[in-house]
Structure formats: C-alpha cells, structure tokens
Amino acid sequence: MTTIAVLGAGKIGEALLSGLLQGGRSAKDLMFTERHPERAAELTEHYGVAAVEVADAAKRADVLVVAVKPQDIDPVLDQLAPLLGADSLVVSLCAGLPTALYERRLAEGTPVVRVMPNTPMVVGEAMSAVSPGRHATAEHVRVVSELLSCVGSVVEVPESQQDAVTALSGSGPAYFFFLVEAMIDAGILLGLPRAVAEKLIIQSAVGAAKMLDRTDEHPVILREAVTSPAGTTINAIRELEKHGVRAALLAAIEAARDRSVELGKAHEDH
Ligand SMILES: NC(=O)C1=CN([C@@H]2O[C@H](COP(=O)(O)OP(=O)(O)OC[C@H]3O[C@@H](n4cnc5c(N)ncnc54)[C@H](O)[C@@H]3O)[C@@H](O)[C@H]2O)C=CC1
Ligand SMILES: O=C(O)[C@@H]1CCC=N1
C-alpha cells in the first residue's frame, strides 16, 4: 500500500487525511508534518495518524503531499532539497506554485505533480485537477489520480490551466457557501426563523447539486424548469441580472485566477 505523508496539516491537509481514512486507507499508511505541535497532537488524537519530522516523512513515504500555504513554501523546499530525488514523488496542492519551482529547488529529476483539490474532500466529494511536471510520468499521474479518486473526482489538465482551475473549483466551494449565506439572510429579511431559513436553503442547495449531478441536464434547462411564465422566479432572475450577478461572478473568478498567477510569480526569482 502506498505510504502518504502530508506536509502541513491545516484545512486542506486535514481534509486529505480525513478523506483518505474515510476512503479506506489505514492510519498506519499515513503521516503528516505540522509546525504547530498543539495542532499536530490534536490531529493525531482525532485520526490516529502519526506526526513526523520532514526527514522521516521523506524516508518513509512514497508520496509527499505539500499542503502549506504558498507563502510558506521556501523553508519546506529547503528542507526537502537534500532528502529527495528521482525515486520520490512530490504532490503540490499549493495555489499558484508551478511545478518548475519545485524542479528548480529539488534534486534534478524529482517528479512533481501539481494538484488543485477543494475542501469537499472531507465528504469524499473533492474536485481535483492534476498536472504532471517535467519529470512526472504517466505512472506518477496514475498513482496520484488513484489516491485522489478515494476522495472525489479527478481530471487531468495541462499545467497552463491550473490558475483557472484554482479560481473555478479550488475556490469554488467558497462561492457556493457565500451564496447560501446570502440566501439565508434573505430568509431572515422575509421574517423566517433562522433555523427554518437554513434548512430551506441548504436542502435546496443539496437538491439542486444532486439534480445537476444526476439528471445530466444543462443548468439552463434546470433553471428554466423552475421559472414559470409570469411566476415568482422570473421576478427574482430579473433582479439578479439587474444587479449584475453574472458579471460579478465573471469578474470575481477572473480576480481569483489573477491572484493564483501572482502567487506563482512571487517565487519566480527563487
Ligand atoms: N483551503 C482550501 O480550500 C484549499 C487550499 N489549497 C492549498 O492548500 C494549501 C494549504 O491551504 P490551507 O490548508 O487552507 O492552509 P492552512 O493555513 O490551513 O494550512 C497550512 C498548514 O501548514 C502548516 N505549516 C506551514 N509551514 C509548515 C512547515 N514548514 N512544516 C510543517 N507544517 C507547516 C501550518 O501550520 C498549517 O497548519 C495552500 O497552498 C492552498 O493554496 C488548495 C485547494 C483548496
Ligand atoms: O484561497 C486560496 O488561496 C486557496 C486556494 C484555493 C482555495 N483556497
């Protein structure tokens, strides 16, 4: 069984560990590093997964998954550089960071696969996009895709598309949560008790997501089926269009893409 080390057990690192355990991986095949000892102890207690030093992770793990913030990557690369080589497999979950950065800073030939996952990983519903770096083979991509398929769906994209993917599905859950939050507020505005508004909106979100997933219908068709002539929905749609919600989403996702590019550029000289 593949041994996996997660380097940096924050939100996405924990989501991965938890998703892999739920997907049937044994805790003994997993390990993590974490710079905050209290956080490490909490995770070990909760999941039964060992916290280790980087050197230990590099020695014991077949796959090293980097899950620190892009701004914290430098010390991690410095630590890994003398420890890894062509036999290792590095997986980067970091927004914006190109595989070329790892290839520059790690030993020649170290295979790197860039992945953009998302937090629904905790419930086995991640969307992950994988892109091989220069030294990663089809077999490396297969290993990483298989690992990620335990925690959701996986697609392969050219690395040139990863900044767009980051803006779309990496950040995507946040947009849906934002929408749900705003719709619950609308329920409050209309005088509903908060608990009722939450139940109505969350179940509507779950139902809509399942319809998108299971009916194979285009979202426009599904939306039209709710929108009766001279009914209530079209009045709401008119307001959404008037307030530029579609344009706001285009601009928002473009801004997220730009930030991903910027995070990568910040490391261009290192
Ligand atoms: N949160 C999300 O929805 C997603 C995050 N990502 C990417 O995942 C990475 C992690 O993001 P989050 O989990 O949100 O951040 P986070 O801040 O929750 O987690 C990062 C963790 O790494 C630890 N850490 C930092 N430097 C370390 C070091 N040298 N050694 C050991 N541990 C170290 C921190 O203590 C922290 O627990 C980022 O690069 C982000 O771009 C990717 C997709 C989705
Ligand atoms: O906001 C971020 O930078 C990370 C990457 C994608 C989702 N969360």
From TrEMBL:
Pathway: Amino-acid biosynthesis; L-proline biosynthesis; L-proline from L-glutamate 5-semialdehyde: step 1/1. GO terms for molecular function: pyrroline-5-carboxylate reductase activity. Its main location: cytoplasm. Its EC number is 1.5.1.2. Residues 3-96 form the Pyrroline-5-carboxylate reductase catalytic N-terminal domain. The keyword NADP applies. HAMAP family: P5C_reductase (MF_01925). Catalyzes the reduction of 1-pyrroline-5-carboxylate (PCA) to L-proline. This is Pyrroline-5-carboxylate reductase.
